[in-house]
Amino acid sequence: MLTDTIFEHLDEHKVSWKNFEHFYSFLRFFERHTFDSDNVVSFNDPLKGFAALAQSGNLPSVSFVEPHYVDYPPDSFCDEPPSDIQEQSEVPPKTGGDGGRESEMG
Length: 106
What we know:
Elements: H1 6-12, E1 17-21, E2 40-42, H2 50-56, E3 62-65
Parallel strand pairs: 1-2, 1-3
């Protein structure tokens, strides 16, 4: 798709941003971001992922975290079968940067 997204507007105003994906990001359907490895990164990437940037104090001004859309357990957190909806209370379920303790968001 060639439609502008909020991300083009952020770029236009020189606002730093990252989209953290679990497995794949819907942002990749937009042509400008299909191969964007600077701003669309794996949530769990050890160097550029959410926990790594948060721990180092380098998160961008705007951060988007996309869930793991694939419905098949383990590790899915969609609200539809066959996923276990009891595990949906924590998004993201674990940041990995907290010494092995699961982080709670709320």
